[in-house]
Amino acid sequence: MNFYTWNVNGFRAVLKKGFMDWLEVADPDVLSLQEIRSEWEEIDLGVRRQLESAYEISWFPARSKKGYSGAATLSKKELGFTHAQGLGIEAFDQEGRVLQSAMGDLVFIGGYFPNASTGLVRLDYKRSFARHLADHVQALHAKGKKVILTGDMNVAPEAIDLARPKDNRMNPGFTDEEREDFRLYLAAGLHDVLRERNPETPGLYTWWTQRGDARTKNIGWRIDHFLVSEELLNRIEQVEIHSDVMGSDHCPVSLTLA
């Protein structure tokens, strides 16, 4: 089973950059999208019908501001996933942050995690989000569920996860507080599989600024992650960053589960 995550930086925009061709080739079983920035009804009718023919779709745009944030999960119909939107906390749900999908004892959580923003004006909001989500994961584990948590988490956990850690010390995405909160997910029983399997490999980035030809030079950040329950570790065949896929300032990341 192939799981994918991708911050598309605007779904209508990525449709113009080959998204449907990519989808046909990648053929994800479950796909988490972030920053969709659109209502479902705003998507071209032909595209909607094509997607609906193959996938169960949970589309979760922000209610607080049109064209802002938002996430979606697509799962192949034959898999039988059921989808739920939000954490039940209005401050987060109004921004279309998180969706949860379940199949048996497997729970897939995908979403667009808050950005601390310039001047760290949303750091407290982001920290609250992280605490609530980590508690939710811990509660799922207590019920015997196996969890896959993914999405644009807007944090580089360690210095190896960005090209210029010294220059970005205490900038959004690399503050001590955000890195500490990332470890809450690990304390809740999740594993950062890609880093565990590549502990000393630099250059594994998933986002690049659109300035200064950063992507060509691979001056980037690893902020899009797959975290999984320990019980799933021996079933993971591969975790891969698809940096060759264009269309967004992020690239897709995939996890293959036996």
Cα distance, first to last residue? 6 Å
| Major beta sheet, strand line-up | 3-4-2-1-14-13
Oligomer: single chain
Q: Helix proportion of residues, in percent? A: 25-40%
> What is the number of helices?
8
Low-confidence stretches: none
In terms of DSSP E residues, the strand content is 25-35%
Give the number of domains: 1
Structural class: alpha+beta
How would you sum up this structure in a few lines?
The protein is built from eight helices and 14 strands. By secondary structure, it is α+β, with helices and mostly antiparallel strands.
Outline the secondary-structure elements.
Elements lengths: L1 E6 L3 H5 L3 H8 L3 E5 L10 H10 E6 L10 E6 L5 E4 L4 H4 L4 E6 L2 E7 L10 H20 L3 E7 L23 H12 L2 E3 H5 L9 E2 L5 H4 L2 E2 L2 E6 L6 E6 L11 E5 L1
Parallel strand pairs: 1-2, 7-8
Antiparallel strand pairs: 1-14, 2-4, 3-4, 5-6, 6-7, 8-12, 9-12, 10-11, 13-14
Helix pairs in contact: 5-6
Explain the overall architecture.
The chain has a single domain (2-257), classed as Endonuclease/exonuclease/phosphatase (Deoxyribonuclease I, Chain A). 26% of the residues lie in helices and 28% in strands. The protein is built from eight helices and 14 strands. The chain has helices spanning 11-15, 19-26, 45-54, 90-93, 123-142, 176-187, 193-197, 214-217, and strands spanning 2-7, 30-34, 55-60, 71-76, 82-85, 98-103, 106-112, 146-152, 190-192, 207-208, 220-221, 224-229, 236-241, 253-257. Strand 7, helix 5 (123-142) and strand 8 (146-152) form a beta-alpha-beta unit. The protein is globular, with a radius of gyration of 17 Å.
